[in-house]
């Protein structure tokens, strides 16, 4: 039973990956069930076994894209034995380096973005991803200040989290659209310097 479940999850994930590849290559409008089936090398019927139709498939692909970004960014922050400022620095670095900073990532994000204003379920996926990111930033920022023997109230922490997230978003977009403009590690250093200035903490 467990083996069958793993195989089913693997097959579903492969269909999501095929959807993302189809969108990256041909755009969101081209990502019909038939076209995704072609990319995945399966029948339309198999896709409809896992997804009710294009809308559900697109939502799953968008959620998978944001989850991949979030999981990748969290890799360096899980170990709570590591000082908070180090974990905050690693989070910023991860979000401003490949594979998060990449033309394909921003291309997919841009394809999905209009739907987040017209489809309530897509809007919920975007909102939850935003909350997840600002929440982890808030924890890392609060812990970093505590490491410096400073205590901030929740409003101040949330304000800082929003500002640092805005820095990351702006540089992520800039770096993904102009990958040849920045030397290796330059985007990360710009992000760390900007976050240090906002927080008045030594991160870079």
Automatic annotation (TrEMBL):
Residue ranges of DNA binding: 32-51
Keyword Repressor: yes
Gene Ontology MF term list: DNA-binding transcription factor activity; transcription cis-regulatory region binding
Pfam families: TetR_C_6 (PF13977), TetR_N (PF00440)
InterPro entries: BetI_C (IPR039538), DNA-bd_HTH_TetR-type_CS (IPR023772), Homeodomain-like_sf (IPR009057), HTH-type_TetR-like_transc_reg (IPR050109), HTH_TetR (IPR001647), Tet_transcr_reg_TetR-rel_C_sf (IPR036271)
PANTHER family reported for this sequence: BLR6905 PROTEIN, HTH-TYPE TRANSCRIPTIONAL REGULATOR RUTR
Boundaries of every HTH tetR-type domain copy: 9-69
Entry protein name: HTH-type transcriptional regulator BetI
Keywords: DNA-binding, Repressor, Transcription, Transcription regulation
Keyword Chaperone: no
């Amino acid at each position: 039973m467990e083996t069958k479940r793993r195989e089913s999850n693997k097959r579903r994930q492969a269909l999501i990956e095929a959807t993302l590849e189809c969108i990256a290559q041909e755009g969101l409008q081209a990502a019909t069930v038939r076209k995704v089936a072609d990319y995945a090398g399966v029948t339309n019927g198999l896709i409809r076994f896992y997804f009710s139709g294009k809308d559900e498939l697109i939502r799953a692909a968008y959620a998978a894209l944001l989850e991949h970004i979030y999981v990748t960014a969290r890799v360096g922050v899980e170990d709570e034995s590591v000082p908070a400022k180090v974990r905050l620095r690693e989070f910023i670095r991860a979000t401003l380096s490949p594979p998060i900073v990449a033309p394909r990532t921003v291309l997919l994000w841009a394809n999905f973005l209009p739907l987040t204003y017209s489809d309530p379920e897509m809007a919920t996926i975007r909102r939850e991803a935003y909350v997840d990111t600002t929440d982890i930033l808030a924890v890392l920022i609060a812990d970093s200040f505590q490491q410096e023997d400073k205590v901030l109230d929740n409003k101040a922490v949330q304000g800082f989290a929003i500002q640092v997230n805005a820095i990351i978003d702006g540089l992520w977009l800039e770096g993904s659209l102009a990958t040849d403009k920045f030397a290796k590690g330059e985007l990360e250093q710009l992000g760390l310097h900007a976050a240090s200035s906002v927080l008045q903490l030594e991160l870079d």
